[in-house]
Amino acid sequence: MLLRLLLVSMVAGVLSGCGYNTLQTQDEQVKASWSEVLNQYQRRADLVPNLVNTVKGFATQEEKVLTEVTDARARVGSVQATPEILNDPAAFAKFQQAQQQLGGALSRLMVVSENYPQLKSDTLFRDLQAQLEGTENRITVARNRYIQAVQAYNVTIRSFPSNLTAKAMGYSVKPNFAVEDEKAISTPPKVDFGAPAAPAAPAPATAPQ
Fold first, then answer.
1. Residue 17 CB: number of other CB atoms within 10 A?
2. In terms of Cα–Cα distance, which of 176, 177, 155, 151 is closest to 166?
3. Distance (Å, whole) CA 34 – CA 84
4. pLDDT tens per residue, the chain (209 residues)?
5. DSSP conformation letters of 115-149
6. How big is the chain by its Cα radius of gyration, in Å?
7. Rounded to two decimals, what is the model's pTM?
8. Other CB atoms closer than 10 Å to residue 128's CB: what's the count?
9. What is the set of domains in the chain, with CATH numbers?
10. Are the beta carbons of 154 and 174 closer than 8 angstroms?
11. For a tag on the chain, would you pick the N or C end, based on fewer CB atoms within 10 A?
């Protein structure tokens, strides 16, 4: 019995020292962070149909922009965001590109809406704008957490002696969001609820002749 306990303790020590436990913990953190990213992206995609229909009711002539948003949402839906995507850089890049296209199309839609005062004053549209802004902020937070989780995981994967354990267990470096997109995701679409214009200054009085 004593020999068995000693053997178990030695095995536990070896596993701890070789980074096995750290890999398990960080891998789970990456998966949890990725799930939150997907949740927030899905939240944004779910806003699109109502947003497009609302804008269409006031700005039917903006067919090009509305079509861009609808098509971008369709491309997002066509990408299968399975857990395996985290181990496939090409699939991850395709997913990222689709999400960028949807974000860009929504930003252009918000710019177009500025040209329609009646649309901007519509209660439903204002509510959808607020939801979109909140969702973009949540996406930024979720992505940043994912980036940090992947960075920590990838450092462990590359470091000795945990890199030997990772290789033996089949763990590999995971893809991350592109650096060039970080500035874009940190700036959510501007939402302007149409603040009233400041009153014009009175004209200066002319001196009597």
1. 12
2. 155
3. 12
4. 655 544 444 444 444 557 899 999 999 999 999 999 999 999 999 999 999 999 999 998 899 999 999 999 999 999 988 888 999 999 999 999 999 999 999 999 999 999 999 999 999 999 999 999 999 999 999 999 999 999 999 999 999 999 999 999 999 999 999 755 545 444 444 444 343 334 334 444 444 43
5. T-HHHHH-HHHHHHHHHHHHHHHHHHHHHHHHHHH
6. 25
7. 0.77
8. 20
9. 25-185 (1.20.1440.20)
10. yes
11. C
Amino acid letter, residue 165: T
Q: In terms of Cα–Cα distance, which of 107, 84, 102, 113 is closest to 172?
A: 84
Cβ-contact 30, 174 below 8 angstroms: yes
Say how far apart CA 88 and CA 90 lie, in whole Å. Answer: 6
CA distances from 14 to 3, 25, 172 (A): 16, 16, 21
DSSP state of 61: T
Joined together, the tokens standing for residue 3 give 């020999």
Q: Report the phi/psi class of residue 49: left, alpha or beta, with left for phi > 0 and alpha for psi in -120 to 50.
A: alpha
Residue 82 falls in which region: left (phi positive, over 0), alpha (psi -120 to 50) or beta? beta
Q: Which residues contact 58 (CB under 8 A, 6 or more apart)?
A: 116, 118, 119, 122, 125
